[in-house]
Amino acid sequence: xxxxxxxxxxxxxxxxxxxxxxxxxxxxxxxxxxxxxxxxxxxxxxxxxxxxxxxxxxxxxxxxxxxxxxxxxxxxxxxxxxxxxxxxxxxxxxxxxxxxxxxxxxxxxxxxxxxxxxxxxxxxxxxxxxxxxxxxxxxxxxxxxxxxxxxxxxxxxxxxxxxxxxxxxxxxxxxxxxxxxxxxxxxxxxxxxxxxxxxxxxxxxxxxxxxxxxxxxxxxxxxxxxxxxxxxxxxxxxxxxxxxxxxxxxxxxxxxxxxxxxxxxxxxxxxx
Length: 272
Description:
This protein is α/β, with parallel strands linked by helices and 272 residues long. It has helices at residues 21-31, 59-70, 86-96, 120-130, 141-148, 155-167, 211-224, 229-245, and strands at 7-12, 35-40, 42-47, 50-56, 77-80, 103-105, 136-137, 174-176, 186-190, 195-199. The protein has one domain (7-262): UDP-N-acetylmuramoyl-L-alanine:D-glutamate ligase (3-Layer(aba) Sandwich), CATH 3.40.1190.20. Helix content is 36%, strand content 17%. Helix 1 links the parallel strand 1 (7-12) and strand 2 (35-40). The termini are far apart.
């Protein structure tokens, strides 16, 4: 008999085409050999072309879902993605604050189109209520700009942003993902003591739907297994790089990444 399988919980919105949100998280957990569980916050009508509509679930029902999980199978790590309203954030914070397990926040704040997904009140709530509970926060560059109300155009600015998230907003660690840095994507981790850089090759593709969800889910899975943060970040970075490189060419817009891309590294003559 092997040791008990590790578990991870995602708290997020949905994507019926499977490229982002809860669906992406569960696929990633599975590939990282962690048992995935989910609490849905919003039901989203979206595809590779964009978001068509959103239905927010009642806060009381989100609380019931959380109770169903937490009173039965306490996760080894928790991840949150789309939590759209201040009331949802308060409810999630109240339910998870006493569980001493790694908590990863993917602050879903800006759509691929550049449209804001959170109003000012929600932005303040995620800063004041959720981020202080976080083991690590993983904004991309546009999300970090909104979160901190600052421009991030280069690596030093990304380093500064990661430090602010830890030192002022009180997260334990922050990773500012650098996929929006043209030609030179570098993720920046600040662990409360040191800055660490995680560079990757630039992959010229439009098929990047759900990259933030997938990266943060891979990170969550590794933390659930007890992998140290720096090593977990390396693994998650390689996982998402392979997922983008071996894209699936699905949909009429920005297609999803390939969750089993990491298995294809040894195949000859693979093309982006």
